[in-house]
Design a protein that fits this description.
This protein is of the alpha+beta class. The protein has one domain. The chain is about 40% helix and about 20% strand. The strands form 2 sheets. It has a two-stranded antiparallel ribbon. Strands 3-4 form a two-stranded parallel ribbon. The longest helix is centred in the N-terminal third of the chain and has 12 residues. The radius of gyration is 17 Å and the shape is extended. It comes from Acrobeloides nanus. One of its GO terms (molecular function) is nucleic acid binding. This is Transposase.
Length: about 120
Amino acid sequence: MESNRVCERYKWAVWMVIHHLKMKKEEDAAQISMTAIQAKRPRKNNNIVFHHDNARPHVEARAIESIEEKEWDLLPHPPYSPTEAPTDYHINRSLKNWMSNKVYDDLDELVDDVKA
């Protein structure tokens, strides 16, 4: 049945998932997303980047229009890239913890630290 179909949405805030939810196909993704963002980050109201995979409900015209109406930046998922799925970063908490509070002056310094 059409109304029972759900799609998953991931909302990212700079370095972390803001919210993951399942929603019915006919629901407005942008409105639900904005509610989730406001609940999690009350002061965040601009420079929102929406990252999703290429599942049909996520790339249909209505979903894209809804995101553009909110004036969010759309960060599309590569066409087929299982090594760079949006959840990969969420899964790799050890990397996130290791990188926390580190500041690098340039890319070479970062590369050297990772290789060490």
